[in-house]
Amino acid sequence: MKKLLLAVLIAAMCLSAVSVPALAWDEAHITHVIRMGMVGDEVYWSLTTDFVLRIEGPGAMPTGYYCADQYRWFYTSDFTESAVIAEGITNIGPYAFAEWYTLERIVIPKSVTSIGKLAFYKCTGLKDVYYAGSEEDWAAVAVGERNHGLDSAVIHFNCSGTEIGTLKNPKSTGFGYPEGPIWEFSNGVLTVSGNGSDYGKPNGMTYFFRTDGNQYEEIEDEVETIVVEEGITAITEYLFSGTSNASEVYLPASLESIGKYAFYNNGVTDVYFAGSREEWQAVSILDGNDALKNAEIHFGYSYDPRCEEGVLGGIRWNWQAATGQLSAFGSFGSGRVYAAVYDSDGRMCSASAIKHSGESVYIGRDFDLVRLFCLGEDGSPICRPSDIIP
User: Fold this and answer.
1) Each residue's pLDDT tens digit, 68-120
2) Which CATH number fits domain 31-166: 3.40.50, 1.25.40, 3.30.1300, 3.80.10?
3) Domain ranges across the chain
4) What whole-number distance in Å separates Cα of residue 209 and Cα of residue 6?
5) Selecting from 2.60.40, 1.10.3470, 1.10.15, 2.115.10, what CATH number does the domain 307-388 have?
6) Residues with Cβ < 8 Å from 68, sequence gap 6 or more?
C-alpha cells in the first residue's frame, strides 16, 4: 500500500518534467522529506527538514475547512515557517493557511488567480510574500474576505521563487515535530529519537526522502541499520516498510507496540532489543511484521555507533561496538586470529580465536584494549599485532 501511494506521488512530481537529470546532491543543501500527501486528485504537498511546506501540481486547491482531512498539511502548522506554492496552482483554497501563526514567508506563483476566504486568516507572523508576477498582476488576483495576514505582509514582486531557500540553512540530517520524534539519516543508519510514538499525527505514513527542493530521491534502499532510541513507545504502521536492505534493527526498552506492516518487506535478520526477554514478549506486534518475528532477537543491547577496522597481515578485521562482535575476512592459510582482551591494569581478561574468514567472536564493548594476533600452527607470529582501543 505504501509503495503504491509512493509511486503515485513520485509520478505526480514528474508530470511537468521534460527530462530528469542525474541527481548530483550538494550535501550542504540537502533536506529530507518527512511528510507528504495528496489534496484532491492532482495537488500534492511535501514538508521538508528546512521547515518548508511545498504545494505543487496543476489546477486549484480543493475547497475545505482548514482542519478537515482536505488539508492534511494543517497538522504541520505549529512549526512550518515557510511555504512554496509552485507554478501551476491556480488558486489558494479557503482556510488553507488559517491560524498558521508560525508562517513567516510564502512564495506565490503568477499562475494563482484567486485566494479563497480566510486562506491567511490570523497569519500574524507572515512578514513576506514573494510573488512571481508584477504589481499589476497582483492587483488582478481575486482575494477573498478576511485575509488580514496578507495585509500586514510585505509583497515582493517579480520574484524567482528561490527566495525561501536563501533565507535559512536547512537541517540536513533530521527533523522533529514539537514534542515528537526526530529522524535522521547518515552513512546507512536511519535513527528515530524522541518521546512517545513516532510521528503521532494524522496522515499516517512517513516517507524517507532527500531533496534539494527541486528533485526528490528515496533513501529507503540505502538504509542498512535502523535505530529507534530510548523514549519511543510505539512504531506506527508501515513506517519502515520497504527498507529491504536494513538487516539490523535496534529497539529500545521503552517500546510498547509495533503497528501493522511497520517492517513489511524489510530485510531485518537481527533485532537488538535494549530490554529483557520478558519485556520483549510484552511488546504488542501487529500483523504484517513477519520479517521482525523471524529475525534473531538479541537482548540487552543498545546502539553504539563506535566502529574500528584495520588490517592484520592479509586479513581485514572489523569491530562493531553496538554488537561487541569482532569479524575477520581474508586469506587465513594455516594461521588463526586471536583477540586478547586487557583491563586497565594490563592484565589479559580473555582470549578468543577466529579460525576462518567471515567468522565473528564476541569481545564486548567495555574494555581498555584488545590486541589482535595472527599466529601460525606452531604459535609463531605471522605479522605484527594490531590494537583496538575504544
Assistant:
1) 444 556 656 766 888 889 889 999 988 888 888 889 999 999 999 999 999 99
2) 3.80.10
3) 31-166, 179-299, 307-388
4) 11
5) 2.60.40
6) none
